[in-house]
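Page 42, continued from yesterday. The earlier attempt failed because a stray header line got pasted into the input along with the sequence. Redoing it now with the clean sequence only.
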Amino acid sequence: MDKKEFFKYAKENNIIKLCEMADQYDIDVDLFFDDDYLERNVLHIAASRGFLDMVKIAIEKYGVNINGTDICELRAIDYADENGHYNVVEYLLQNGIMDNLKEDSKFLTSKFPEVKLFSKSINSYEDLYNFSIENNEEFWRTLALNRLEWFKEFDKVNNGLDFNDYENYEHKWFINGKINVSVNCVDRHYKKNPNKTAVIWDKDEPGTEQYVTYSELYKLMNKFSNMIRHFNVKKGDSVIIYLPTSLYAIAAMLACARIGAVHSVVFGGFSSESLASRIQNCQAKIVITSNQGVRGGRFIEFKQTVDTAIETCPFVEHVLVYKRTDNPFQVNKDKDIIIDDIIDTFPDECEPEIMDSNDPLFILFTSGSTGKPKGLVHSNAGYLLQASLTQQLVFNYDCEKDVFGCLADIGWITGHSYVVYGTLCNGGTTVLFESTPTYPDPSRYWQTVERLKINQLYLAPTAIRLLIKHGDEWLKKHDKSSLKCLGSVGEPINVEAWNWFYEKVGEKRCKIADTWWQTETGAHCITPLPCGSNDILKPGMAMRPFFGIQLALMDQNGNESDTKHIEGMLCIKKPWPSMAMTVFGDDQRFKETYLKPYRGYFFTGDGAFFDNDGHIKITGRVDDVMNVSGHRIGTAEIENILSEHPDVAESAVVGVPHELTGEAVFAYIVLKETQKSEQEIFKQLKNLVKKKIASHAIPNTILVTPNLPKTRSGKIMRRILRKIASNQIEDLGDLSTISESNVIEEIIQSFRSMSSK
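This time it went through. Structure tokens are written below.
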């Protein structure tokens, strides 16, 4: 290719392709700079593609101000950062780019254009964080007005209440604003870009994915909305969604939001009794389910579970059934409606309900330390704003072109915030993953990344540890070059898993967002990203509070601690928009669980410590709640089930470290006199827990012991039991309050006897 052909190709076709050819075929890059048109574009194109050698030649040949302007340099850094080419970013910064600006400024304005609207000058990450705390109302007001679409704008940002007067606390944000979540997630993007892909449903069988545009999602959502209204569901009514991770699950959620119904999505792994308790708690008029689910090559009997559950729920008027498979199932003619038979009879236009900012959007149940799951209620406006804001900023998400791969089940808060509401509110493309990490083999995630060209991958540490065990050869078979950012969610990630994720999956070029948040918080509260351009990431640490979030560590005396490297109770100082409003039907429980333990603070139930740099590490639960594979389970919830067994006199459950699942369930039981063998009882207990709760709650270990250690007031000393189960027998701590000291030695002997087998 001579010089004339070279320039002709560049101008008539695609400069990006030209850059790729130059890099691939070693074309003399000096040719670029013999023509003004190419000269003005090559730097940021090379930077966006990560061609460092080409970037170096451009800088060396023309310095930091090509054509006397810094625009090319600003774009170069921006494009390199967007596409994860941090070696290029580092080179540009080290060579004097943007000397006339603070380094963070361009990063902030490109992803956070609202900084131009704030009353103070924002030139760095630290400036923005400090502004979000010191000017909290202005910060959230500006974002809400510019990121959400309103029927009527709000009068006040919030009601001015804090956590000090917790008895009278009421969570109210964007007061008197009128909004509809479905309009923000679908309508406005449908009008702007109807043919853009909204959802990629990656079904259980690889290669059978379904692409759904905003136009198609809009029509399906409206048909669903009209169908639900037809069955007498009105604004404020509760709807249970018990569906596999599927397109109809998203349609059902959005349809509820559109007509003002309050949805409660129940994880498909829960038993019929767990499902029944949730239906009863929210008094749902209808249940939306499927005949079966398909996961990991297996059929899951959703409809059978619903049939058993509603035997104790006579108030349920209808069960709407989506046929996920062609397999036959039992139809109850009095209640069952087959969605597939009627959905296309409803119009694909539906007027959205005008909702108040603080009307409930959904109820999501999470385990508590008392044994009874809590139905946490989230709002319309505050929740949506913070879910969408964090989805974009934490993952450096390009709303126009990126494919967001949060591979969580929609039955959990991660699925709500980052599969459905956050990504769709931003007008993005979200992946709906139906399968498992190892089906049909341990390369499934990497197949999916390559096939769908995923740019951000958001996983639980349990999945990462599982895939580490299968070895690196499954990774090497697939192209992961589309990845720009990685995320970890659900539990603290250990350093080994973090390093493998960074080095093997992200190929040392993708930043990792180790996110901390909860069902209660609604959205990310602690995350290393976004950050200043020169800030480092620390393996296994969530590190920094997100904008608008103030953290505190409380000591054992209930005072805020400023001591580094001492573990404390993690609390949040001030309310934030996406915080849960209450526990459904039990506001007193909400206040006693979260606001009473440390007056003036929101208690998270997690422990943490600050390092010398002020970065935070989450150490795990400090209450009687375990985290198994990212699933929160209350110890009392399992204990109540174990104690139902006729041969069990007493039980105590603790969580112990587990290399794969993070924590595992360890159960101590005291048996009555019985003729049954221990192994027979163990099998029955595990089946009982599976039936009453779910598979992830089954005890990994059951230990029979003559007695349980108790204080003189009769409280079980779980701290001691946790130490023994973790084989930390030499470090049991203070035993002065135990009522019978010989009990400890008996338990230790039982533990050692079991361990030696």
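Notes: Residues 293 and 300 are 5 Å apart (CA to CA).
Reminder to self: strip header lines before submitting.
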